[in-house]
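FAQ

Q: What does a record look like?
A: Structure on top, sequence underneath. For example:
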């Protein structure tokens, strides 16, 4: 499976096999104004912000040791360094984000069968849920 999802940030260029979810863009936030005894409502713009959101990435690795190396050597520094990353999916850039935290799903062994799309050397599915927030 080709790498279709990339994060570029700092010195890293992190690639994934797939993503579940799509980064949401920054939008103008609206405040609803209602007065007691008055019919209707008004709106006030409060600024352009991005919602904090969760996306899941998937990557296939050769074994549990490779998964640990990837998490410790690549994923943890993305959070610890507080880098601004650019998210690209299918050649479309979704803008700049910061990673708030991440959580690994349990590692899942993949049963390889003849003709499997994930190849014969990829035996562990590493899924990670990321909490991201858009930034300028």
């Amino acid at each position: 499976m080709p790498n279709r999802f990339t994060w570029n940030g700092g010195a890293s260029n992190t690639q994934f096999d797939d993503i579940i979810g799509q980064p949401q863009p920054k939008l103008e936030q609206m405040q609803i104004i209602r007065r007691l005894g008055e019919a209707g409502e008004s709106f006030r713009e409060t600024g352009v912000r991005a919602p904090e959101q969760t996306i899941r990435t998937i990557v296939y690795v050769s074994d549990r040791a490779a998964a640990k190396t990837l998490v410790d050597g690549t994923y943890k520094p993305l959070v610890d360094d507080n880098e601004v990353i650019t998210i690209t999916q299918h050649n479309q850039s979704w803008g700049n984000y910061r990673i708030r935290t991440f959580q690994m799903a349990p590692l899942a062994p993949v049963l390889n069968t003849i003709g499997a799309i994930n190849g014969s050397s990829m035996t562990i599915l590493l899924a990670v849920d990321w909490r991201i927030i858009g930034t300028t």
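Q: Is there anything notable about this one?
A: The first strand starts at residue 5 and ends at 9.
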